[in-house]
Design a protein that fits this description.
This protein has about 140 residues and is α+β, with helices and mostly antiparallel strands. It has one helix spanning about 5-30, and strands at about 55-60, 60-70, 70, 85-90, 95-100, 105-110, 115, 130.
């Protein structure tokens, strides 16, 4: 074998071995990379503290939420106008909910209660609410 050809073949062999090793390491790293962490499960009735009236977008305290100590004239400010499906009254007082803005429309008084608004035909039908002594 000619010396130049032998050097060329050895160089090619080393290059091929190096390339194979690098490809193997890359494959190994890809196969052993940690999986992305799963999103934590949503907690129902989350963050509703004593003294608050809490409203939730979906049944059983799931979905978007807003928390009130006195009330609001417009649940649209919280992206929940006519989207409330469950409530939790932890105020220790009566909360008056209304089908329209600014305490207009049909009233639904909520005492110390936690549940789905559909039980009282109020699913997705609350636009304003206030904590007050009477409705």
């Amino acid at each position: 074998m000619f010396p130049a050809k032998a050097d060329f073949l050895m160089s090619m062999r080393r290059s091929l071995l190096t390339l194979t090793a690098v490809a193997g390491l890359a494959m190994s790293a890809a196969l052993t990379a940690p999986a992305a962490a799963a999103a934590p499960a949503e907690t129902p009735w989350r963050n509703c503290e004593v003294g608050e009236f809490c409203v939730y977008e979906h049944d059983n305290g799931y979905g978007k939420a807003a928390y009130f100590r006195s009330g609001t004239n417009d649940l649209g400010d919280y992206n929940l106008d006519n989207q409330v499906s469950s409530v939790w009254n932890r105020t220790g007082k009566l909360v008056c909910t209304f089908t329209d803005y600014y305490s207009w429309g049909d009233k639904w008084p909520v005492g110390n209660w936690k549940g789905n608004t559909s039980q009282y035909n109020r699913n997705d039908n609350i636009s304003s609410l206030w904590v007050q002594p009477t409705c």
